């Protein structure tokens, strides 16, 4: 009984193994020979991507990719460029000649001769040829400085010459011109101050000498005396100043010295002399009065007044002055 059961069992197991073997053998062939389903009409065969074959079932998922570490290449430095030390004997490439060098040579030669005006003109032409050239700009500045110094020296020399000639206002003008070029010039400041003071004093002397009649007036005579003292106290001895001092000194002395004057009347006329006062009635009167202009007025009851003007000049005798009222009213 048991042997029969065992045989049946082994028979069933054998059948199962045979069926499994048939499935594994025939199923792949059936799948490969089965026709593929047709694609829909809207899908063109050419537009479908080619199927990418996948890895065999036994290699899915794919094994990790091992990256081999590349050995670092040794970097070899590039060779240094060779330097050619052979001198270049080929002629240099010259810029087109615009005349700049010739003009600069002309300017520098003029500077050596201290012909600053010609040098300035040459430097101006050089700058016009090459506005950015520093040599032209520097040379032009030096030429203009030379011209300025020459001008200052000229004003100084002419100022001193005018002082020697006692042309004080002309000297003052020269020093003013020098200060206009450089206000810090000491000689010009001192020269202007000196010339202006002497010019003013000389003008005062000339005015007093030119108007001697003023000296008959006591205040004017005192003023002239003060100016004379001032001129004598200044330490400059030019011939013009000496001559002016001598003239004014003589005028002051002569106008200070009284002159003898005789006035004749008729003992009936009352006489008054301006700057002196009332003289009264007399026949002859001798007075000592300083030079100047005078007016004698005579008056008498019942007669027309008379007026007599006369001038007393220094050192000149004067004829007797007659003052009489003779015209009855």
Topology:
Elements: H1 2-33, H2 100-112, H3 116-129, H4 134-164, H5 168-181, H6 186-210, H7 218-233, H8 239-256, E1 259-264, E2 270-273, E3 277-280, E4 284-289, E5 292-299, E6 306-312, E7 321-322
Q: What is this structure, in a nutshell?
A:
With 329 residues, the chain is of the alpha+beta class. The chain has helices at 2-33, 100-112, 116-129, 134-164, 168-181, 186-210, 218-233, 239-256; strands spanning 259-264, 270-273, 277-280, 284-289, 292-299, 306-312, 321-322.
Description:
- This protein is α+β, with helices and mostly antiparallel strands and 329 residues long.
- Among the domains are: 100-197, Serine Threonine Protein Phosphatase 5, Tetratricopeptide repeat (Alpha Horseshoe), CATH 1.25.40; 198-256, no CATH class; 259-322, no CATH class.
- It is 50% helix and 11% strand.
- It contains eight helices and seven strands; from the N terminus they run H-H-H-H-H-H-H-H-E-E-E-E-E-E-E.
- The protein has helices at 2-33, 100-112, 116-129, 134-164, 168-181, 186-210, 218-233, 239-256, and strands at 259-264, 270-273, 277-280, 284-289, 292-299, 306-312, 321-322.
- A four-stranded antiparallel sheet has the order 3-2-5-6, with no helix packed on it.
- Helix 2 packs antiparallel against helix 3 (116-129) and helix 4 runs antiparallel to helix 5 (168-181).
- Mean pLDDT is 80; it is low at 1-5, 36-62 and 67-75.
């Amino acid at each position: 009984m048991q042997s029969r059961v065992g045989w049946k069992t082994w028979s069933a197991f054998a059948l199962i193994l045979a069926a499994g073997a048939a499935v594994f053998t025939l199923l792949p062939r059936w799948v490969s020979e089965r026709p593929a389903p047709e694609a829909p009409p809207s899908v063109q065969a050419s537009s479908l991507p080619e199927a990418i074959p996948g890895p065999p079932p036994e290699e899915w998922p794919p094994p990790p990719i091992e990256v081999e570490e590349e050995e670092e290449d040794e970097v070899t430095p590039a060779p240094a460029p060779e330097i050619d030390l052979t001198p270049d004997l080929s002629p240099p490439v010259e810029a087109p000649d615009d005349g700049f060098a010739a003009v600069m040579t002309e300017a520098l030669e003029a500077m050596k001769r201290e012909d600053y005006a010609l040098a300035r003109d040459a430097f101006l032409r050089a700058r016009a040829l090459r506005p950015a050239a520093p040599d032209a700009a520097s040379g032009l500045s030096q030429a203009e400085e030379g011209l300025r110094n020459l001008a200052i020296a000229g004003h100084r020399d002419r100022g001193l010459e005018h002082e020697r000639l006692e042309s004080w206002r002309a000297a003052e003008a020269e020093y003013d011109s020098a200060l206009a070029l450089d206000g810090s010039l000491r000689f010009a400041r001192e020269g202007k101050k000196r010339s202006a003071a002497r010019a003013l004093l000389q003008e005062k002397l000339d005015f007093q000498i030119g108007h001697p009649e003023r000296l008959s007036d006591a205040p004017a005579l005192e003023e002239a005396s003060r100016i004379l003292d001032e001129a004598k106290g200044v330490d400059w001895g030019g011939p013009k100043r000496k001559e002016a001092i001598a003239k004014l000194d003589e005028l002051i002395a002569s106008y200070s010295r009284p002159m003898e004057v005789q006035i004749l009347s008729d003992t009936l006329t009352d006489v008054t002399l301006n700057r002196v006062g009332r003289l009264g009635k007399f026949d002859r009167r001798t007075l000592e009065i300083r030079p100047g202009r005078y007016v004698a007025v005579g008056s008498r009851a019942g007669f027309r007044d008379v007026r007599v003007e006369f001038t007393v000049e220094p050192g000149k005798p004067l004829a007797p002055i007659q003052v009489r009222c003779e015209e009855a009213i």
